[in-house]
Write a structure and sequence with these properties.
- There is one protein chain.
- The chain contains 32 helices and no strands.
- The radius of gyration is 56 Å and the shape is elongated.
Length: 534
């Protein structure tokens, strides 16, 4: 025990003795006497004094260490500052006379109201092409006319709205203002527009248009808005309507009006009409009727026939449109489609309608590969549209001999007069042998009429022709145009031969037996000039 603690202990003992002396046990107080104070609890006081002191707190040590570290850091900083060379101090800038800051003042409202009104009048007076999007083009033109005001920070849409209250604004400029608000305005402005312009503000959505076209009374309003909206916007809107509105809820008149609108929208409209074949309930005959009136439909069909996008169109409709519009580029597509049994008839019909040398060659290849459908009727259909088609095909295409023979067989199976010119053209083709060429002449005579007399004469006069072929031409001309017309071809023969041939051609029985007559005339034509035939 340290000395300090010992002294405190002694002082406490003395104080305790004095307290004990003052609080001795007193006699019982009489009634009415004052109550003495209670004696202190000396044992509790001693226990409190004897309790060990709490341990010293560590925060004081930490604080002392931190203060020492801070002092050391400050000392090091001052030492480093003393070691640096003297640096020049920045001199304060002398204060000059203060100038007032100019605040920009907004220009008066009259400086924007008049340009907006003038721009509305000038842009609304222009003519716009139907091929473009008139609404978007007019809005862009108005933005260009007010580019300076927009750059100055003026809210153009708000001032266009204010221009509507100008009584001097004419009707076209007022319509342009409403269109501009429908395209460039916010929702609050669009909510206050007339019904047609609100439709434009909703981007001609399918729901609004379906509601209009489902109601006969509002169909005219919807059609008027589509006409005014231009090709780009109305094409998208009409396509959405036709794709989502069942045909049972669409009036036939309204449907035809929508299809006619697409037909007037150039290439986008024609493309939409073709692609609607897969995504709408509109009948194909209605789509084909609309495409027949579209000026750019043939161009679109030709492009689709050569591109992979043809898969986005119903193949039968694409082939039918190629037939209607006579798109020559669709011949290759039709030949490929003929390999599908479901598309064989539309493909053959398309080739027959094209009636080009390429289409005729495609028909020959399809027939050579063993088509399930008889190709002969489609050949007749092609030859009827162009009687000279067979000759042009034989002259333009490097056909193998098998295809030329196949064409002769098709003409024979056809049994129609339209195949006669083609058969006669085959008679002049060197890819056939002599018997096949004679058969072609006989077939032409069997199917043809008097109009074949001139081609028969040309074939007869051609150099290096076999005698039997020339004899067949003579007999054929006599049967089709009469014996005098055929006898005019024999001026170069000796009179005796010409007389004998004339007797055979004039004999009614001889024409009834053409094989015998052809054999007799063949001998006369093949005999040397000086010989006499019995």
């Amino acid at each position: 025990m340290s000395g300090r603690e010992h002294d405190a202990r002694e002082r406490f003992e003395r104080a305790l003795e004095r307290a004990r002396a003052r609080h001795v046990e007193l006699p019982h107080a009489e009634p009415g006497a004052a109550t003495p104070p209670p004696a202190p609890d000396l044992a509790a006081i001693r226990a409190r004094i004897d309790r060990p002191a709490p341990p010293a707190r560590r925060w004081s040590r930490v604080a002392i260490a931190a203060a020492g570290a801070l002092a050391a850091g400050v000392a090091i900083a001052f030492a480093l500052r003393a070691l640096r060379p003297n640096e020049p101090r920045a001199q304060p800038i002398p204060a000059g006379p203060s100038e007032p800051i100019a605040t920009p003042t907004p220009p008066p409202a009259a400086s924007i109201a008049e340009p907006v009104a003038n721009a509305l009048r000038e842009v609304s007076a222009r003519a716009w092409s139907e091929a473009a999007d008139p609404l978007a083009a007019r809005a862009d033109a108005l933005d260009d006319a007010l580019a300076a005001q927009r750059a100055a920070g003026w809210p153009i849409a708000r001032w266009v709205e204010r221009a509507l209250s100008d009584a001097a604004l004419d009707a076209p400029a007022r319509t342009l203002a409403l269109d501009y608000l429908a395209l460039r305005g916010d929702r609050r402005l669009a909510a206050g527009l007339p019904p047609g312009h609100r439709l434009l503000a909703a981007a001609l959505d399918a729901a609004a248009l379906r509601a209009l076209f489902a109601d006969a009374a509002s169909t005219e309003l919807a059609l008027a808005e589509l006409e005014r909206a231009g090709c780009a916007r109305s094409t998208q809107a009409v396509r959405r309507v036709l794709e989502t509105l069942p045909e049972s809820k669409l009036d036939a008149t309204a449907r035809d009006a929508l299809l006619a609108r697409l037909a007037r929208c150039g290439e986008p409209g024609a493309t939409a009409l073709l692609e609607l074949s897969l995504s709408s309930s509109v009948r194909h005959d209605a789509l084909r009727a609309a495409l027949r009136t579209a000026p750019e439909a043939a161009l679109v069909v030709a492009r689709l026939a050569r591109s992979p996008r043809a898969a986005a169109v119903e193949p039968a409709l694409l082939l039918g449109c190629a037939s209607d519009l006579r798109v020559d580029a669709a011949a290759a597509l039709a030949e490929r489609s003929a390999a599908d049994p479901l598309l064989e008839q539309p493909a053959l019909a398309c080739l027959a309608a094209l009636a080009t040398p390429e289409a005729l060659v495609a028909l020959l290849r399809i027939d050579a590969h063993g088509a399930e459908v008889d190709v002969a009727p489609y050949l007749v259909r092609a030859l009827r549209s162009d009687p000279d088609l067979g000759r042009r095909a034989l002259a333009a295409a490097a056909l193998p001999r098998e295809h030329v023979r196949n064409l002769l067989a098709l003409c024979d199976r056809a049994g129609d007069g339209s195949a006669a010119p083609c058969a006669l053209a085959l008679a002049a083709d060197a890819r056939l042998d002599a018997n096949e060429r004679v058969r072609a002449v006989e077939l032409a005579i069997e199917l043809g009429d008097a109009t074949l007399a001139a081609p028969l004469r040309a074939l007869y006069d051609a150099p290096a022709q076999p005698p039997r072929l020339r004899a067949s031409c003579l007999v054929g001309a006599a049967r089709l145009a009469g014996a005098p017309a055929a006898l005019a071809w024999l001026d170069a023969l000796p009179p005796s031969r010409r007389e004998r041939i004339a007797n055979w051609l004039n004999a009614e029985r001889a024409l009834a037996q053409p094989i015998t007559t052809v054999s007799r005339i063949e001998r006369e034509l093949a005999a040397p000039p000086t010989s006499v035939s019995l």
